[in-house]
Design a protein that fits this description.
By secondary structure, this protein is an alpha+beta fold. Helices cover 38% and strands 12% of the residues.
Length: 234
C-alpha cells in the first residue's frame, strides 16, 4: 500500500465526508450485498481506539419483530420529546421523518464494552469516556464507508437504551451507543434533512474556531489560517 494518497483518492475521501447524510427516508427494498456489508464493518473495526482496546461490538439485526419493538420505543420517545417543544415548533418537529427502522435492510446496534481486555486500559485513567469516544470513531468510519459504497445510514438516537438492552439481551455492563439503519437508497440529498427543513442553520467554520484560548477570535500568529477559514477554503 502506497502511503501517499493520489489526487483522485483524496477527492473520493472528501466526497464521502461532504456527501454523507443522516438518512431517514429514501430507503429501497434492495438488500445489501454481503460483501459490501462486510467491507463496511471492516472499516468500522479499523477505527482508532484508546489503548488499542477496540471496545466496540456490532449487533446486526434483520428480524422484523426486533425492529418493531425498537420502532415502538422510537414512537414513545418521539412523543415524549415533542412535549418539550412548544407550537409551532412542536408541529414542525412531529412532521419530521427521524428514522428508517422498518424500511432499512439492516439495523446495527453499536455497543461499548468497558471490560474488554481487562480493567486497565492505557489512556482511560484520566478520561474514562475515551472508550466511548473510540466507539464513536468506529461509527464514523462505518458511516463514511457506507457512503462510499452508496449505502444510506441513519443514526436513531430517539430510542430507549433500556428497550435496546432488553430486546438485544445486552449484559448490564454493555452500553448501547448507537442504533443505525442501513440500506440502499434512491438518492442522497444535497443537504442534511434538518438543514433543508430550516430546523437549524449550517454554521460557518469561522463560527466554531477559537485561537489559543476559549472565545479568542484574534491572534496574529493565526492570521493566515484565519483568512483561509473566512474565505471558506475547502
Amino acid at each position: 500500500m502506497n502511503d501517499e494518497f493520489t489526487d483522485d483518492e483524496k477527492a473520493g475521501f472528501y466526497k464521502a465526508i461532504y456527501s454523507r447524510r443522516d438518512v431517514r427516508s429514501h430507503f429501497t427494498q434492495e438488500p445489501i450485498n454481503e460483501e459490501t456489508l462486510t467491507k463496511i464493518l471492516h472499516a468500522a473495526h479499523h477505527a482508532p481506539s484508546v489503548g488499542f482496546s477496540q471496545p466496540w461490538n456490532f449487533i446486526l439485526i434483520k428480524d422484523m419483530k426486533t425492529k418493531e419493538k425498537v420502532k415502538e420505543s422510537f414512537q414513545k420517545e418521539h412523543e415524549k420529546a415533542s412535549k418539550l417543544v412548544e407550537d409551532p415548533k412542536r408541529s414542525e418537529y412531529l412532521s419530521l421523518k427521524l428514522e428508517g427502522i422498518m424500511e432499512s435492510d439492516v439495523n446495527v446496534c453499536v455497543t461499548y464494552d468497558p471490560t474488554k481486555f481487562g480493567p486497565f486500559i492505557i489512556g482511560t485513567t484520566s478520561i474514562p469516556e475515551a472508550g466511548i469516544y473510540s466507539v464513536c470513531g468506529a461509527i464514523q468510519n462505518l458511516w463514511l464507508a457506507a457512503r462510499a459504497e452508496n449505502i444510506g445510514l441513519g443514526w436513531v438516537s430517539i430510542v430507549s437504551n433500556d428497550v435496546l438492552r432488553k430486546e438485544l439481551n445486552l449484559p448490564e455492563h454493555i452500553v448501547p451507543v448507537a442504533y443505525l439503519c442501513l440500506g440502499h437508497v434512491t438518492n442522497f440529498e444535497a443537504k442534511p434533512d434538518l438543514e433543508r427543513s430550516g430546523w437549524l442553520p449550517r454554521l460557518d467554520l469561522k463560527d466554531v474556531i477559537y485561537f489559543e484560548k476559549w472565545e479568542q477570535k484574534e491572534d496574529e500568529s493565526w492570521n493566515i489560517i484565519k483568512k483561509m477559514i473566512e474565505s471558506n477554503l475547502k
